[in-house]
Design a protein that fits this description.
Number of strands: 34
Number of helices: 1
Largest sheet: 5 strands, mixed
Helix content: under 10%
Structural class: mainly beta
């Protein structure tokens, strides 16, 4: 029964198959076998897992015992017969050194009925990709870190160009980092696809990467990383009105920013515009339709290369000409339900200039127990179940009045 011996490519994070054993016949290797076989021949840190006769009896069927063993050094330049058989002691094992030492010790095959073939470097038989082979950038979308912080840089292949990932197993990765420790790194295979460095100085720092596949080098410029100096704390971005009318627009201001040992020097807004250059901590945004929500972000910076993004309060546009709630009658039949919170209500009565008393009725529940706190048009009133506010001598003819209720209520005018 023909079987393949599995190679533990632990440093690569993959598994691959190499050579046949059992009957003595060589199973024709598939594409990835050829690539990884050449990689093992050139990379001493990768080798075969030990397989004993007890673990795999079929792997040793037909083996010829011998009182001596032969040591064979695998080399891409050596000429070997794939069907050549090594005879060794009756101690049944197959072993290839997996030491990380730079010196490559000879391989040993005992009680083996064959000698695996040695192929040339996999890069010689693969066509080199054309185009952008990938990108390099800090991992986890890191755009800011503090001095002394660690950043892991990663190469990500373009799968439209490098469609066969095994091409990277024998590739070389040469990294160069600006202002980092270490300042450079070189590695081969999957272990070179990411590198971790630390930064001791603030500011923007870039990195470059040269990926060499066979004799073809590909140079990449990585996305930069920003390193902060003195921290910026305490910033708050508040809205002047959380429900501004579309005719007025929305506005925000940033307050409370501090930075020990450094000065706040800049405000960069996204989603709003600074109207007065003398006050860059304030910005505004036009509103175009009812229900529109806007929540800008402002990037605050200091003179020690530190930046911090501050999320502003969200506002929702209202339209005085198209209110959510509208009271059109003076009789109780014109009452409408209004939710708790602050809501603009359009009140329009049929007779201009008449007195205007607003009433709101609530119901009992365990939380409010029928208590209603109400503010209508700037006038406050509290009571149980039924509360009224007299807006006279102001009339309610076609007015937009702001209702603030502590509980849901049904409101009208009388």
């Amino acid at each position: 029964m023909n079987k393949k011996i599995y190679v533990g490519m632990m440093s690569l994070g993959v598994a691959a198959t190499f050579w046949a054993c059992g009957s003595g016949d060589i199973i024709t290797p598939n594409n990835i076998d050829e690539v990884l076989k050449g990689y093992v021949a050139e990379e001493p840190t990768v080798g075969l897992n030990m397989v004993t006769e007890k673990e795999c009896p079929a792997c040793f069927e037909g083996a010829v015992a011998s009182s001596s063993s032969k040591k064979v050094r695998s080399s891409s330049s050596s000429q070997q017969n794939p069907n050549q058989q090594d005879q060794s002691s009756s101690s049944s094992k197959i072993e290839v050194n997996t030491s990380s030492s730079s010196a490559r010790p000879p391989s040993e095959y005992s009680s083996s009925a064959y000698r695996p073939p040695v192929s040339n470097s996999s890069s010689s038989s693969q066509s080199m990709p054309e185009g952008t082979i990938g990108v390099c950038a800090p991992t986890k979308d890191i755009s800011e870190i503090d001095e002394g912080g660690k950043v892991t840089w990663k190469f990500t292949q373009n799968k439209e160009v490098i469609k066969d990932a095994t091409m990277l197993l024998s590739a070389s990765f040469n990294w160069t980092f600006e202002g980092a420790t270490p300042s450079s790194a070189t590695a081969k295979g999957a272990g070179g696809m990411s590198q971790s460095v630390t930064y001791s100085t603030s500011g923007d720092h870039g990195a470059t990467l040269v990926v060499s596949i066979g004799n073809s080098p590909y140079q990449l410029t990585c996305s930069p990383v920003h390193v902060n100096g003195a921290k910026i704390t305490g910033c708050k971005c508040s809205a002047a009105d959380k429900k501004p009318d579309i005719s007025v627009g929305a506005s925000w201001s940033v307050t409370g920013c501090t930075s020990a040992g450094a000065n706040i020097v800049g405000y960069e807004w996204t989603g709003a515009t600074v109207a007065d250059p003398a006050h860059p901590e304030k910005a505004a945004a036009a509103l175009t339709e009812k229900g529109q929500t806007v929540a800008p972000v402002v990037r605050v910076s200091n003179d020690d290369n530190s930046v911090t993004d501050v999320q502003c309060e969200e506002v929702t546009a209202v339209d005085a000409l198209s209110p959510d709630y509208e009271i059109l009658q003076t009789s109780n039949t014109g009452a409408i339900p209004i939710p708790a919170g602050t809501n603009p209500v359009h009140i329009k009565v049929p007779v201009s200039g008449q007195s205007c008393v607003v009433f709101c009725q609530t119901t009992w529940d365990a939380e409010t127990q029928g208590q209603l706190d109400m503010e209508v048009g700037g006038k406050k009133k509290s009571g149980a179940f039924n509360v009224t506010v007299d807006l006279s001598p102001d009339n309610c003819d076609d007015d937009m009045v702001e209702f603030t209720l502590s509980a849901p209520a049904t409101c009208g005018v009388q």
